[in-house]
């Protein structure tokens, strides 16, 4: 039976789940794989913090470098997070001839090109299933299950915090700040929730998925990123009238050799399966040229789901210990956000007088934007009414130019709101 010695750096939430699985499922993994995964050492700066699992003292250390330099350790698992010391740990582990497993999406999205180049040069593997989707095996799906497909599109709900907030706003009619406070109270959102609510966490993850799908270098700096802080209960209600829900989607598509790479609030038809994914759950839609549309659903975070993905990576590395890592070197153009085409939802706060709709629609017409549906009702205290418009597909740059003109019209009292729409045109 093949024995694999493992060192874990980081004994926090995910580290604890990984340790539990390695210890409690060791016999099961032996039977299924013929591999004996041996936990040789766990490093963490704070070994006194209460955890719901205890380890013998000889397995614990405060010195991560002890793991990295140990010649008996085959796989180093990095679970400390961040993009500074974690990068040093991974690069040095590779230089010491060790395979690496990480859940660190920010590090891979921002420094993955350097890290994978090092691994490729040394013939070592990097497992990163846990970096996207928690317990959803989306990395394996793209690398293995759909390997015969050209990837046409990937979009998904890949941040549970924002999905929880939007779910609360949708079903309870509460505003963003109240939903955020509840998410923080329940532990779904950090005290500083910026990475989640501004879409940055989702941008890290879609960077990784796009690199896998298209073989391109990690391109985090090219991701268009927009969060959910400006979404209102009013927009959610209007979306429902049109037959849509609002979700924070991470999207990558390829068309004519150009790749779209974007994160933003998106209106999705209510009958789509991804619209029915609520709470802290994640869902990722993948379209391949052979398989068609597929959807992957599950818990996107948490100690045990993410730990499960970490252990799966260890097993994969152990099975193919001498295989080379993925080479992200394909050359594609990232399509500028202003060149993407989408349907759009607009909400204008317009004065209630004749000719307003014709003025706005006239500007749209001048910029090649065609109106699909209109809703107008309910006066505000200021004497203005919300005028809501859904368009057919238009180019982003035309939309931005049209809005710049419309916001200057004397009949429009506030800055206009717009949300991109995914789905088939009616």
What does this structure look like?
The protein has 426 residues and is of the alpha/beta class. The chain folds into 3 domains: 2-135, Rossmann fold; 138-299, Dihydrodipicolinate Reductase, domain 2 (2-Layer Sandwich), CATH 3.30.360.10; 338-421, 2-Layer Sandwich (Alpha-Beta Plaits), CATH 3.30.70.260. It is built from 14 helices and 18 strands. The protein has helices at residues 13-24, 26-33, 64-69, 85-95, 105-122, 138-145, 160-172, 176-185, 194-197, 200-214, 233-242, 303-319, 356-366, 396-406, and strands at residues 2-9, 35-43, 60-61, 75-78, 99-102, 126-127, 151-157, 224-225, 244-255, 258-269, 281-288, 292-299, 333-334, 341-351, 371-376, 384-391, 394-395, 417-421. β11 and β12 (292-299) form a beta hairpin. α1 packs across α12, α4 (85-95) packs parallel to α5 and α13 (356-366) packs antiparallel against α14 (396-406). The termini are far apart. This is Homoserine dehydrogenase. Its EC number is 1.1.1.3. The active site is at residue 205. Pathway: Amino-acid biosynthesis; L-threonine biosynthesis; L-threonine from L-aspartate: step 3/5; Amino-acid biosynthesis; L-methionine biosynthesis via de novo pathway; L-homoserine from L-aspartate: step 3/3.
